[in-house]
Amino acid sequence: MAKLGSKKPTQRPTARGRKGWTARAVLTSVVLLATTAFAADTLDTNALKRLVHQDCGSCHGLSLKGGLGPDLRSETLKHYDAEVLTGVILDGIPDTAMPPWRPLISEEEAEWIAHYLLEQEEQ
Amino acid sequence: MRHVILTLAATMLMTTAQAEPTATGDLGLVIERAKGSVLLVDQSDRAALARIEGLGDLSHASLVYSSDERFAYIFGRDGGLTKVDIVARQIVNRIVQAGNAIGGAISDDGKLVAVSNYEPGGVRVFDAETLAMVADIPTDSKTIGLVDAPGRRFVFTMWDTGETWIADFAKGDPMVTKIPDMGKNPYDALITANGRTYITGLFGEDGLTALDLWAETPEPIRVLPDYGRGQEEMPVYKMPHLEGWALTGREFVLPAIGHHEVLWIDADTLTETGRTKTHGQPVFAMARPDGRQVWVNFAHPLNDTIQVIDSVSKEIIHEFKPGPAVLHMEFTPRGHEVWISVRDANKVMVYDTQTFEKLREIDADSPSGIFFTARAHRTGL
Asked: Domain boundaries in chain B?
């Protein structure tokens, strides 16, 4: 099984191959801007932030530094694409303690959370 | 000379009396998880007395009391171990002993404080007086379910490797007994009040595993190994806690995992005696000290509700919604009242356990764990 305590997220395959870092950063920013603009109308971002810190935080820590679940700070997650993170949030990771959140949140909300995790200020 | 000393002693006693000595027997502390503070509360006054700040990241914090009920040792998520004097209402010592901690325990003689850590995985043991490190026990695993056991022992379990270790400090340097094959991904554990039975709940497989600590060589005993088999597991959005190990007459009651129910287990045979369907995934299933009622709270997103179960009929006799994010419950030592932390209402609410009437609301900043000083005299708390 995937070890929850794994400190080497870089070893996990990502959905996309390696791209130029700049290109990816630009793409991420564009997607984030688009998502944020869209989110402003439909998503309760304060409620989502609260969900991330309080409820994801049950396992990942209030400040997302990790607990029973791994560290979720942007520095640790930056090797993942938002798409991969969105998938993990929605469907969980089988045979680990990461549950699927699809019963509780929408795909848009999961996308917002994935971008929020990637874009957090360094803590 | 003798006369002078006696006079001096008498004067000192009088001074103390005039300063109104603090009796700690009905005091308690409430963790304010976001603020990194603890709130000193008084049970009989149903009031907050003082806030003590500067305890770091308390997002998953717990504490134990010294045997004289004067000091609290608070275990923070950030590895902080803080010793608070609840009489003087101040921090007297604080260390950061690891990167990521999950809980702690105090030895039966009150001399050793142990902390279980996720990072680096293991247990570290400190002198209760000075907080100087006495022992470092790496386990190469996230370490959970740390409890004190009679005879200056600590028992703890490894999430990654499924082992339970018993560290015996009776003769100074610890003697460690390792018990493998406790099961896959144990997530929490508890010890019965008499210090005999240690039980760990399993996330990675069905059931629980017990140890008889009175046995010469404790062996894993499977409890409810077929529990939940063939039923679809529901997602677990918060791991249950087993601290509220509830003995109701001859039975224990425990939160199920992946199922919306609590489990009743015969205390002697460790076999199932019943199940009660609940509102959601239980987090705490805590018996009132007399054992007559069991109060249950739930994981996100159903964490605004409490159900009360009658331990004779095993039926739900009361359900109510104290408010958003009910995180913890603590009974007064004889069980006439229960204090409930409602995180997102920023309140601690006090209820009468006979009438279920709300008696008081106390302001607190994102309150989580509530700990009354009576815990000082209980094994495993």
From this structure: 97-238, 244-321
Beta bridge partners of B82: B74, B94
User: Does the domain at residues A33-119 carry the CATH identifier 1.10.760.10?
Assistant: yes
Q: Does the domain spanning B97-238 belong to CATH 3.40.50.720?
A: no
Contact B186, B159 (CB under 8 A): yes
Taking the CA of residue B234 and the nearest CA in chain A, the distance in Å comes to 9
CB contact under 8 Å between B119 and A66, yes or no, is yes
Strand B208-212 and strand B197-202: the pairing is antiparallel
pLDDT tens, position by position, B6-20: 555 554 555 554 578
Q: Is the pLDDT of residue A10 over 60?
A: no
The interface predicted TM-score (ipTM) is: 0.79
Q: Residues A45, A113: contact at Cβ < 8 Å?
A: no
* B244-321 CATH fold: Thrombin, subunit H (2.40.10)
**What is the pLDDT confidence band of residue B229, given thresholds at 50, 70 and 90?**
low
Restricting to A residues 51-80, those with a Cβ less than 8 Å away from any Cβ of B are: 54-55, 57-59, 61-63, 65-68
